[in-house]
Design brief:
This protein is 2% helix and 53% strand. The protein is mostly beta strands. A hairpin with a 4-residue loop joins strand 2 and strand 3. The protein is globular.
Length: 397
């Protein structure tokens, strides 16, 4: 076997969190199977994580809060990954954060970590020291419009722009609808300073509830998942990412079955394939009905939507819906080679199958990615989440 073949079949580290526990798995390329390795208990529940672009460091945002309760203890932890084994160890001491972080990223050159918070909606920029540890918050000179309910922060591949994805909120009996937007800032990677730019908010942000975006690896195309509308938008941007078209170039309905309201149907995470030929986005359903005192799943779409990207226009065309083999895949990830996709089904649910009530467990489901971008299910590992959820998962290396 050649060296390149050997390397291509080396185990790929996968990390997934349940509460405060971050578990390391190995993905075995030859069999597309997962084996559990070890676990690390962090100070608080894992909210999100992002790896450094050039060093074996993983930055993990933690909180004792949740989407329902903000909590009162929050931090970012730096973990060092052993290059040979993938085992994680703490690198320095945790750094306190001002409120519950919902998403984080590291800029393209690894100089700063950027963290998004939903209550109140805002973001912070932290300098990354030469040894990879987290430094002080960079105090921003400008006053930034950070919208309503920030859900994600991303740095454009040019490293000259930052987008804060603000979801807004649907109307309730006591509150009118709060609009969503993509808040675009110019970014100076040396100083960590953000400059107010534009707000992308079709129809004033009403009926626009974006959750996540991802960038095409070569073209100035941005793909956005609209959690509250089960749609995907394509936006075209300037080469440096500081200017984004005010209206989408294309709108794609993600559901194959449009009956989803009662099913609590929401789309979620979105990822562009490393080769730029495909984009993947998850549909999630968690609706239940009471049946003899038990909450029973009423069905819906828990699937990965596979879209082929037109290389000239960037427009996506749906070519496949693939069941995630569980419910509410809050996160999924592609490996760096684009050969595998893993969906992290977040919690167990009681469902009726064949006239019987059975529990569908939380799980990590592994799919092979074909040359045509389509997914083929291979295997899964069931995950015992206890009273918690499998909140984050990522593939590193």
């Amino acid at each position: 076997m050649s060296t390149s073949q050997s390397n291509s079949n080396a185990p790929i580290p996968v990390y997934a969190s349940v509460g405060k526990t971050l578990t390391h798995y190995d993905l075995h390329p030859e069999t597309a199977s997962l084996s559990r390795r070890d676990s690390l208990v962090l100070p608080y529940k894992v909210q999100y994580a992002w790896s450094h672009p050039t060093t074996p460091l993983l930055y993990v945002a933690c909180s004792n809060g949740s989407p329902e309760a903000g909590g009162d203890a929050h931090c970012i932890v730096v973990l060092r990954r052993d290059a040979a084994s993938g085992v994680l160890s703490e690198h320095g001491i945790p750094v306190a954060l001002p409120s519950r972080p919902v998403h984080m990223t590291v800029d393209i050159t690894g100089q700063h970590a950027l963290i998004a918070y939903n209550k109140p909606s805002h973001l912070t920029v932290h300098r990354i020291e030469r040894d990879g540890r987290i430094g002080a918050i960079v105090q921003q000179h400008a006053t930034l419009d950070t919208g309503i309910y920030a859900h994600q922060v991303r740095v454009a591949l040019s490293n000259k722009a930052v987008i804060l994805v603000t979801r807004g909120n649907k109307a309730t009996d006591t509150r009118p609808e709060e609009p969503g937007a993509l808040k675009v800032y110019a970014y100076d990677s040396d100083s960590g300073q953000l400059t107010p730019g534009m707000s992308v908010a079709p129809n004033g942000g009403y009926g626009f509830g974006p959750r996540h975006i991802d960038f095409h690896p070569r073209q100035p195309w941005i793909y956005a998942s609209l959690e509250l509308q089960n749609l995907m938008h394509l936006y075209r941007a300037s080469a440096d990412g500081t200017k984004v078209e005010a209206t989408p170039a294309q709108v794609t309905q993600l559901l194959a079955d449009l009956k989803g309201a009662k099913r609590r149907q929401r789309c979620g995470t979105i990822h562009v394939h490393p080769n730029g030929g495909f984009v993947y986005v998850v549909n999630r359903a968690s609706g239940v009905e009471n049946e003899n005192g038990k909450d029973v799943y009423i069905g819906g779409e828990n699937n990965i939507v596979v879209c082929k990207i037109d290389p000239q226009s960037g427009e996506p065309v749906i070519i496949q819906h693939v069941d995630t083999c569980g419910v509410v895949a809050r996160t999924f990830a592609l490996d760096a080679s684009g050969r595998f996709l893993i969906a992290a089904n977040s919690h167990p649910i009681l469902a009726r199958k064949g006239g019987k009530l059975v529990t569908i467990p939380a799980s990590l489901a592994v799919f092979r990615v074909g040359g045509d971008g389509k997914l083929t299910y291979v295997s899964k590992v069931d995950v015992d989440t206890g009273n918690d959820t499998q909140f984050w998962m990522g593939i590193v290396g």
